[in-house]
Amino acid sequence: MTSEGWGTPPVGPISQHYIICGGNALAHRLALELVEQYEVPVVVLVPDRTREHAPQIEQLAGVAAVVEFSSITEEALRAVRVETARGIALVDGSDQENIHTALSAQEHNPDIRIVLRMFNQRLGENIERLLKNGAALSGSATAAPAFAASALARPNSVQVGDRFLYIAYDDDIDSSRICIVADRIDRQHLGRIRLLPEQEGDSASFVRLASEFGDDGPVRRVRNADAPDAGRPAEAPEGAARPETPERASAREEGGAPDEPATPERAAPGDLDAPEAPENPAAPDAPEPAPAAPGGVAALQALPSEPRVRIAWTRRLRWRLLDTLRYLTSARLRLVLITALAAVLMSFGLLWYLNRDFGWSLYVSLLDLAGAAQPDQPADAAAGTGTGGLWQRVAQVVITFCGITFAPVATAIMVEVLGSGRRGQPRNPGAGTRDHVIVAGLGNVGTRVVAQLHGMGVPVVGLERDPQARGISAVRALGVPVVVDDGPLAEQLRRARLKHSRAVVAVSGDDATNLEAALEARAVRPDVRVVVRLFDDNFARHVYATLDNAASRSTSYLAAPAFAAALMGREVLGTLSVFRHVLLIAELRVEEGSGLVGMNRHDLEDPGGVRVVAVRPAGGPRTYQWNYADRTRQLVPGDRIVVAASRGGLARLNTALVSED
Fold first, then answer.
1. Spatial CA neighbour of 570 closest among 37, 47, 122
2. From CA 272, how far away is CA 270, in angstroms rounded?
3. What is the pLDDT of residue 322?
4. pLDDT of residue 312
5. How far is CA 24 from CA 29, 36, 86, 119, 334, in A?
6. Which of 180, 237, 394, 621 could be bridged to 219 by S-S, CB 3.0 to 4.6 A?
7. DSSP 135-162
8. In whole angstroms, what separates CA 481 from the centre of its chain?
9. Are 115 and 131 in contact (CB under 8 A)?
10. What is the distance between the alpha carbons of residues 145 and 575, in angstroms, rounded to a whole number?
11. E strand or H helix at 466, and its extent?
12. For 338, left (φ over 0), alpha (ψ -120 to 50), or beta?
């Protein structure tokens, strides 16, 4: 490693470039995003050229230079020409280091755009106020919803105004659909997927009606059975879908994929920006969407509120009682308590059977349990005036002796809990921990995933090998049990009660470790759902081909588009996963002098790249108008528009707006 202050020689004369500080996976994806999608010059400042992703970054064709400094000093910033740069992204290091570097960069170049990665989002919001032109993002917070949703086998959502947008597939598409976001989905050939396919316009149904019933009468002529061409199909209006023929079906099968329903759990990674294809016949106003070619369909839909995962209160109460009992008692004490309780219940049942009076039986049982019952005297028994027969007396004796047992057992429990200091010990998964999600790896991403699931009301168990991991204390503060052990993964998963779990999410920083956790989980329980954090796309493709009921996500792949858009001055509200692809939901504000002024929906939308989903006109209500019908209305300063865009689509839109400016 280079010593501090030495580094590599400064880069040659360069200006209007973008600087990335870091050599991790996010820096790699961000550099790739900038050079491929935005086509801007990039200079990367890495701590070590031989470690992490620095060697792969150096091989990227569009990267102008890779500079090595062990820490980001004033000399390092001068070496990457920060004074002439347009933007700088700080995606490595601690929050404190990134804040210090951001303020230093602003001193060198007051107009530079600064995007810094911050784990503490509250601190990041405050830092944004100190920066003239900056944004603080959390890569783990951006990616965590996708991991949490994958663990629950449901789509993640992004809040826009008073609605939550999410992706629905095939039969789950309903009347809340806003637009089709993907079609030709086939999990065996996901490279054929089309993101944001071209659709008929909002007025397509009216145009079709006008052509059907115009001034000259219907275009489709009704033929009688005696006509010579009665056996031929009726002539379709212009623009209508042609009838299926064997030739067209054969050609379609050659270019398409088998008609197989897609599932969001399993897919292979592919190119996000698929080539444009013929128009999708599924119009936005159709009651049921239909794919343009064999394969599934995905649509952007809206919910009034994000649904919580509901678990019956009876199950929660049972789990809590079991968990509390195990936490407070040892195995021997539990055996004594359970035996005594069973004896009391059986004796109470005998009393009820003999007297046929539930209230009186309960009254006598409670008195006997407290040792306050009056025994029968021999004279009373001889005269037949006692409280009952022989079996009733036996039942009362049993209840009384069990009551005597409960008092010392309760005392032993208190002594054990207070004397051994078990309240201060870490909480381990108890017997009541069931139907939970196991999160393996409590780094930044794992901590966010645990918090996300805990907020949804889903039971969670953390699993971490490193006792010094930063997320352990944060997770325990939420009351979530954590298994900390550097032993075999199989033993750790057993302690985390894998047999009773609903999913395993492996989100450590190493692909091999995550895959090992997934395979160990499958070895113990073949039907458990696994979500694996993988950086390498080829690796993920093999995982999808091998494992059923599995999902793969890449934190850097989910976060990099948002960081790149923020570096270009665009606000990304969130990312939605279409299998392993990324769809960005971004909000654009029309400023005075912006390239957006005077544009309309026709100018903004790009099939395969950008779709306008909502508009909030200036001076109007503060609510968004979804599927804004007027496609010719020109934007004015103060308008806000929400777009769904692919990575390449948002980059092309940004390039167009910059050129307009």
1. 37
2. 6
3. 67
4. 63
5. 9, 18, 22, 15, 50
6. 237
7. EEE-HHHHHHHHHHHHHTTS--EEEETT
8. 21
9. no
10. 9
11. none
12. alpha
Taking Cα atoms as reference points, which of 292, 87, 318 lies closest to residue 185? 292
Q: Which amino acid is at 436?
A: H
**What angle (nearest 5°) sits at the alpha carbon of residue 328, between those of residues 325 and 332?**
80
Nearest-CA neighbor of 643 among 565, 588, 579? 588
The amino acid occupying position 185 is I
Provide the pLDDT for residue 82.
Answer: 93
Under-70 pLDDT residues of the chain = 1-12, 187-191, 199-295, 306-313, 315-320, 322-331, 372-388, 412-428, 430-432, 541-542, 544-545, 580, 655-661
Q: Are 478 and 413 in contact (CB under 8 A)?
A: no
Rounded to 5 degrees, φ, ψ at 433 are -80, 105
Going by C-beta distance under 8 Å and a sequence separation of 6 or more, which residues neighbour residue 538? none
DSSP class of 444 = H
Nearby residues of 206 by Cβ (< 8 Å), 6 or more positions away: none
Q: What single DSSP character describes residue 93?
A: S
Q: What is the pLDDT of residue 113?
A: 93
Rounded distance between C-alpha atoms, residue 519 and residue 521, angstroms: 5
Query: What pLDDT, on a 0 to 100 scale, did the predictor assign at position 327?
Result: 59
Q: Which helix (H) or strand (E) holds 88?
A: strand 87-90
Q: What does each C-alpha distance from 165 to 42, 162, 331, 391, 621 come to in angstroms?
A: 33, 10, 49, 67, 20
DSSP 278: S
What does R_g of the chain's alpha carbons equal in angstroms?
Answer: 33
For helices 358-369 and 390-420, what crossing angle results, to 10°? Answer: 50
